[in-house]
Amino acid sequence: MIGLLVATVSFGALLYLAALGELISEKAGVLNLGVEGMMAMGAVSAFMAAHQTGNPWIGLVVGILAGALTGLLHGWFTVVLGAEQVVSGLSLTILGLGFAAYMGKNVVGRPPGAVLAPVDWGPLTDIPWAGPVLFGQAPFVYLAVLVGIATWFVLSRTRAGLALRAAGESASTADAAGHSVVGLRLCAVGIGGGLAGASGAYLTLTLTPQWAEGITAGRGWIAVALVIFGAWRPGRAAVGALLFGGLLALKTRLQTFGVDFSPILLSMLPYVSTIAVLIAISVRARNRPSPAPAALGTAYRREER
Amino acid sequence: MSQAAAVELVDIWKRFPGVVANAGANLRVERGTVHAVLGENGAGKSTLMNVLSGVYRPDEGEVRLDGTPQRFHTPADALAAGIGMVHQEFRLVPSFTVAENVVLGSAERILRRQDVEARVDEVARRFGLATEPDRPVWQLSMGERQRVEILKALWRDARILILDEPTAVLTPNEADELGEVLRHMADDGRSVIFISHKLHEVTGFCDVATVLRGGETVAASLPVAETDAATLANLMVGSTSLAGERPPYRTPGEVRLAVSGLCALDDRGLPALHDVDLEIRSGEIVGIAGVAGNGQRELAQVAAGLRGSTAGSVHLDGKDVTSAPPRRRFGLGLCYIPEDRIGVGLAPRLSVVENAVLRTYKGHRRGPFLVGSRLTAYCRDLVERFGVRTGALGDPIAGLSGGNLQRLLVGRELSGRPDVVVAAQPTRGLDVQGVKAIQDLLVAERDAGTAVLLISEDLDELLTLADRLLVMHEGRIVAAFDPMDSERSVIGEAMAGHLADEGAA
Amino acid sequence: MKRPVLVRRHRPLRGGQPLAFAVGLILALAVGAVLLMAADHEPLRVYQRMFEKSLGDQNAWSLTLNRAVPLGLAGLAVAVAGSMGLWNIGAEGQILAGAIGAAWVARIGGTWPGPMLLTGMLVGAVIGGGLLALVPAMARARIGVNEIITTLMLNEIALRLLQWLIHGPWKDPDSYNFPLTPVLPAQAHLPTLFGRAHFGVIIAGAVILVFGIAASRTAWGYELRVAGSSADTARYAGISLKRKILTVLLLSGGVAGLAGGVELSGTADRLTEGISNGFGYAGIIVAALALMRPSGVAAVALLFGAVQVGGQSIQIIGVPASISTILQAFILFGAIGAGVFVRYSLRLVPTGVDASGEGGTAA
Q1: Which fold has domain B244-495?
Q2: Nearest C-alpha in B relative to A291
Q3: What is the pLDDT of residues B203-227, one digit of tens each?
Q4: How far, in Å, CA of C106 to CA of C120, rounded?
Q5: The domain over range A2-115+130-284 is classified in CATH as 1.10.3470
Q6: Which of C127, C209, C281, C331 is deepest in the core (most CB within 10 A)?
Q7: Half-sphere exposure of C23 (CA within 13 A, CB side)
Q8: pTM to 2 decimals?
Q9: Residue C320 is nearest to which of A93, A105, A264, comparing CB atoms?
């Protein structure tokens, strides 16, 4: 049972990192369906860098950079050139998966050069229950928590966050107020990509420390779902991440509990519940605005005349 | 005399392809005054204000603030120089709170919500702008949103505030309150530029008026106290008053469109029409006057079948069409010229041909197929008959000018030989030629025996064209006038909801 | 100082899209060449082999055509929705659902004669794909739920459903515990045309042709364009938006489902997890490159089919097939980059002057 909770938190953090990235990007008005691709790029780059240098932290940094660069490709096409966000994002997924496979073909199945092991908190880890769940985790879990708090703070309590949200709600208003919509959106997409890259690095540096094609296994899509499930709020997304993470953790342990329910069907739940949340939001949106950023998915170009 | 004025616009010229928007316009605004800039649509008011607020650069002429020449490259430059502009379309983020909207673009690095809200509240109180800083903007009425826009300018310490037709979206009460706010600001030493074509507001709360016509200043800085509405009106329209050209009124025929006891809701689900009764007969133009947002838009939509009614009935030539869809009503002879040309009346990305056949495409079928040659022929005929100037008929309509778009739309609607025309703001935003062309078409329809319902915010247009004039206020028809024999001021009172005994129906 | 400004053209450059497409292709080949060289392969030799194995002879063509079938049908599915301004991101899941529907018919109709069974399977495929699109279609038509996310989520749901079937109820008892269904009955295979090309090529071609004509020449297609251009205009013209959304999304799902059925009965001999191979996602790129036009879909699908078949052929000489995935994505990125200039023209204006420009006094 403790194992289940530990795994829940650990999977939850994996999803949360990527979801926070998507949340930041969507808050600025850019839908990026390339999470899966950015994760794959982060995963393979981090693994290869750690493999080369033997230093997992270098791996992490390289993974974040790779994710950010991949994300910025989407930013260039959608924000600067005004391309359709849906098409560009899906192409990014295809590109990221293909590129990662191509890059990593020589390290498939190789042992890791270095891993980011759980942090040793000394005696804290020995606290029953809370010890292993809260203090026996890899650095990524704490990173996810920190990034979650930082995201909440920046979005709701700073000038930069206000401007970023304005760019996602009404780009022309943000522009008229003197903010650069292109700059804000590129920044958001880049950060989003970096976080997806970090999530990918978590996969290959800690969770299953090796590289294989398809290692992301659709978790990027769960991250996209989480943003909606969490109604574009970092706090609610954290709750959702734990729920969805719990499902992932439960999936592999179902048989051991002697429950006769297909783990595969169980893994449909995140997607089914996201559709349900989306429908609920739309029903409610008849009396009040939807929590989705109003300008999400639309390109902005100042009317030149 | 005082030293340099707060704002001086000297001999401003601004040309656009095919149009001279400003032809040597001048404006001098003193500190501490509310200054009206008057003019009809197309007189160059908006262009001049866009020059002042840094959106356009003048081809010739100079902008001076406190006597110092300025060169604005962007609206941000003008803003930094203390010029705030409240546009007709608000630039607000609906999901943000009032305070968030106010500080957007000028916030401190870290936002302390309560602190910011308290300071926004303080500025608001200083100028008599009652707001709740922590409420999201989507919950606010149009008048409250306008206050937020003004607050944004004040927050940035704008010394010169430009309001572009600010009362168009306001109820009369809200308009009065706005007047008080503007007075507050002038007393504070700021300058307010109030763009309008509504005379009673100018005489109501402005100190000085400048009148533009045809891009030129025809009267500069007239003290309002020493003039009257009639003088200003004559300056706006020029010597050739349109009133004399009124087409003769004929005896109307039988009832074509009958609306009784009609109630309907607006987009927000609030009651917009209350128990409206209306009859339009063959061969007459019935005009509906009113301040925008008093139910005219909804009335037109319900009549055309684009909005459901909650009570009452609509009869077309004696047939009950209360729940009939738009296409059926068109088939029965009702055509509709919506106030949103592009996006309702015309499909933006489609070609001229595709837009021309919107009402009649089903008649050009062979089996399930549309016959391309017949569509093109139909469109070519329409374009020629109504003088629409277009490029290739297969090109998107995006390349057409406003006047040509409206000719295409009106032509398409009228070519169905309707019994009833519902026209909402058919000439808004058109140039002089375009206005004339559309008005002539409506009069010709009337003369051919069609019943026309004309909704307009331009009282002069209604006085020129309508055979009967009804006034709407807060979703009701509150008065009826004979346009030949009524005073503008009395009609204006009715539009504001003050009922004079003589005019009331 | 001058700065570049994009100014919208009154109408898109004529013949611009094929040009943009060519730019994309060149960019992709260039990027691919760099990647190949980085891994010590000779780009020209690789490209030559890809070309020969996909378009070099009759057999190569038959493989390419087979590949173009699911790509074209998926692309058409996306384009049908796209012509009304809707995004069906769920083609991938609908393909799986279609394959499931077809496999289900094959399970219950194992003894039926060939034509009847094949017809049944294809009908089952269309129904399967349509059913998967039902929830997004209803949600969009009735309460305005954005179809992008719902269709996307259903991709993953359909994949899990397929996995569950082949790991559980439909698993072949003789498969040594591999997640596979039993092989299809012999008469459940589409007839062969030439080489490896199967009858699905004709089905796909016919479906694309019919939709192409319906979209461009019928009143129905006209109504779709009006509805896609402006919902309010559609209501004004008396076109029922709800019904249009519902039919279009269901049709879109059905067409994608058909791709799954054709793929199952044409190239596979049993239902496996890899039955789709990402055709649904590639179909979105195909449709985007074709600007949502059926005729363009056919052409782009053929090219993407060739790239995919060529990509598989180079594995033998030690080049990862993922290079073809990279090529496909870069064709799109290159084309959307170039496509901007089809709709906009680039002008240099002095800094600080509004783009109307002509009156500005350059500093």
Answers
A1: Rossmann fold (3.40.50)
A2: B95
A3: 888 999 999 888 889 888 889 888 8
A4: 8
A5: yes
A6: C331
A7: 17
A8: 0.89
A9: A105
